[in-house]
Design a protein that fits this description.
This protein is an alpha+beta fold and 206 residues long. The chain contains three helices and eight strands; from the N terminus they run αααββββββββ. An eight-stranded antiparallel barrel has the order 1-2-3-4-5-6-7-8. A hairpin with a 3-residue loop joins β3 and β4. It is elongated, with a radius of gyration of 23 Å. The mean pLDDT is 89.
Length: 206
């Protein structure tokens, strides 16, 4: 059984907060002697405001946060945009040879999903997070993964779990550099990873 991050259930929280806020608002208006007709108009106006704000917030979380103008020069949002396909190599402690490495990321403002491939394996990433220093100027990508071999042949340790920590380097091209460690049995390994951003388009394959 594969586990993943426990995520905040934002939708029911928003619904409950909206209902409670509206109820309190109407109680205050009623206590101040506002007429029933005025309460009805106030309800219609409030519903419209809530609808517009909800749609705007969902669009911002999914797309708008990536636009430099809406980020307000990183004053409002500093989260780095890692969406797309990253390609590079990893060098394993097993034999010190370079092998191809591919990482694809699907991200919005509140979370990200990743899949990684090696030369013969695919890694299902079940927990991924962005880490930042105190000034939020330097960032790292951390993820936990379960790896399995893509071919029909099997060797000991093919299926294993691991952890990766990659430093995000801004530039042209943008880069990810770091390492992973795993719990292969009977031969745990680690490797250096170097990858660069190549495209916003994801292929869903190595």
């Amino acid at each position: 059984m594969m586990f993943c991050d426990l995520r905040l259930r934002a939708r029911p929280i928003i619904v409950v907060a909206t209902v409670l806020g509206s109820l309190v608002w109407f109680i205050v208006l009623f206590a101040r002697g506002v007429s029933a007709i005025a309460l009805r108009e106030a309800y219609l106006n409030l519903s419209l405001v809530i609808l517009v704000l909800t749609i705007a917030w969902k669009l911002f979380i999914q797309y708008g946060w990536r636009w430099k103008l809406l980020r307000l020069g990183d004053w409002l949002v500093r989260t780095p945009d890692l969406n797309g396909r990253w390609e590079g190599t990893y060098r394993s402690s097993f034999d010190n040879k370079e092998r191809p490495y591919v990482l694809e990321i699907r991200q919005n403002l509140v979370g990200l999903q990743c899949t990684a491939w090696g030369d013969k394996s695919e890694a299902e990433i079940y927990s991924a997070h962005l880490l930042a220093d105190r000034e939020e100027k330097q960032f790292k990508l951390s993820y936990l993964y379960h790896s399995r071999r893509r071919s029909s042949s099997r060797v000991p340790g093919d299926q294993h779990d691991g952890w990766a920590l990659l430093r995000i380097i801004e530039g042209s091209p943008r880069k990810l550099q770091g390492e992973y460690v795993n719990n292969r049995d009977p031969d745990p390994r680690k490797a250096e990873i170097n990858a660069a951003w190549v495209s916003i388009n994801r292929k869903g394959q190595p």
